[in-house]
Specification:
Layout: E1 2-5, H1 13-24, E2 29-32, H2 40-47, E3 52-55, H3 62-65, E4 73-76, H4 86-91, E5 95-97, H5 104-120, H6 122-129, E6 147-151, H7 155-166, E7 170-174, H8 180-184, E8 188-189, H9 192-198, E9 201-204, H10 218-222, E10 229-232, H11 241-249, E11 255-258, E12 279-281, H12 290-308
Length: 312
C-alpha cells in the first residue's frame, strides 16, 4: 500500500527515512511531505494515489476525497474528526482512525492555565509592566472555592476536573451520559441550564456534533452570573461567539478564554471576539506540546500498523 503523510505532524527527516525503510521491507511505500498545505488542489495531488493518508486537522472535504480513488483509510493525527467529510467516508468504506488521548494532559493544563490568567490578569499585567505601569488597584481572584462547571466529562473533562479539584474548586458537570469515575471524584451532574446559571467557571470539553453545535447559545449565555468566566478548549462552533462577544461587552459575563474558533486561525478580520472585552485569545495551541506530539506520533503509527495487520 501507499502511505502518504500530507504534512509532517512532527515526523523528523531521520524518522521519515527509518519509516520508509521499515515499510518498504513490508512491501509498502511511505512518503512524508514536510510542509503544511491546505489548498484542495495541493492535497488532492498529494493524496490521489494513496491507499492510506495521515493528516492532522487539515480539512478534507468531498471535493478532495472524491479524487482519491484508492483511499482506504485516513489516519488522523488529531482527536476530533469533524474536519473530515464523514458522510463521504461512510459512503465509500473509508476507515477513519483518530489519535484519541494524545493531548489530554496538554489541553487540561492549558484550560486551567487560561482560568488562572483570567483570574490573575497575568497577560494584562505583563502588558502594563512593559509600559512602566502598576497594579492600579486591580485585585485578582483565586480558584479555591469557586464552582467549576464542566460541559463534557470525557478524558479531557475529567483531567481538567482533577486539576481543579486539587485547586479546591467545587465541581459540577453536564453530560449526556454520566460516568461513575466522575461521580467518584465528587463531581455532581446537573442540567446544562443549572450549570450555566450557578457556575463561576464554565469549561467546555465536548466534541463538535450536530447535538453540540451552538449548544452554548445566546439563551444559555443569558443564564450566566455576571462574575462568571467561560473557557473553550473544545471546538469553536460549540459556542455562539457573536452572542459571547455581546455578553462580554455588555458586562453580562466577566471574562472568557478561547483557544478554538469556527475555523482554524488566523482569525478573519472582524471576528466578533477580536473586539470583545476581557477575553484571552489563543491560536489553537492547547494540544501543542512536545510531550503530546511525541505521544501523537506513537498513536498514529500504532493505528497504521494495526490497520496494516488487519486489526479491527
Amino acid at each position: 500500500m501507499k502511505i502518504v503523510a500530507v504534512e509532517p505532524i512532527g515526523i523528523s527527516e531521520s524518522l521519515a527515512e527509518r519509516l520508509q525503510a521499515e515499510y518498504l521491507s513490508k512491501g509498502h511505500e511511505f512518503k512524508v511531505y514536510f510542509d503544511r498545505r491546505e489548498e484542495g488542489e495541493v492535497l488532492a495531488e498529494r493524496m490521489n494515489d494513496a491507499d492510506i493518508v495521515i493528516v492532522s486537522n487539515i480539512a478534507l472535504g468531498r471535493d478532495v476525497l472524491s479524487r482519491c480513488k484508492r483511499l482506504k483509510m485516513i489516519d488522523v493525527a488529531f482527536t476530533g474528526i469533524d474536519h473530515i467529510d464523514l458522510d463521504y467516508c461512510r459512503e465509500h468504506g473509508i476507515r477513519i482512525m483518530n489519535a484519541s488521548g494524545y493531548a489530554t494532559v496538554a489541553v487540561s493544563e492549558l484550560a486551567v492555565g487560561m482560568m488562572i490568567d483570567l483570574y490573575r490578569r497575568m497577560t494584562y499585567f505583563d502588558s502594563k509592566t512593559r509600559v512602566y505601569g502598576t497594579r492600579q488597584g486591580i485585585l485578582g481572584m483565586e480558584l479555591r472555592g469557586k464552582r467549576a462547571g464542566l460541559v463534557g466529562t470525557g478524558a479531557i473533562g475529567l483531567a481538567t476536573a482533577g486539576l481543579l479539584k486539587a485547586f479546591g474548586c467545587e465541581l459540577t458537570a453536564y453530560s449526556r451520559s454520566r460516568r461513575q469515575e466522575a461521580e467518584d471524584m465528587g463531581i455532581r451532574y446537573v442540567s446544562l441550564e443549572e450549570l450555566m446559571r450557578e457556575s463561576d467557571i464554565i469549561s467546555l470539553h465536548v466534541p463538535l456534533t450536530e447535538d453540540t453545535k451552538g449548544m452554548i447559545s445566546r439563551k444559555m449565555l443569558s443564564l450566566c452570573k455576571p462574575e462568571a468566566i467561560l473557557v473553550n478548549t473544545a471546538r469553536g462552533s460549540v459556542v455562539d461567539n457573536t452572542a459571547l462577544a455581546e455578553a462580554l461587552n455588555e458586562g453580562r459575563l466577566a471574562g472568557a478564554a478561547i483557544d478554538v474558533y469556527e475555523k482554524e486561525p488566523p482569525l478573519e478580520e472582524g471576528h466578533p471576539l477580536l473586539g470583545a472585552k476581557n477575553v484571552l485569545l489563543l491560536p489553537h495551541v492547547a494540544y501543542a506540546t512536545r510531550e503530546s506530539f511525541d505521544k501523537r506520533i506513537n498513536i498514529v503509527l500504532d493505528n497504521l500498523n494495526g490497520y496494516l495487520l488487519g486489526e479491527k
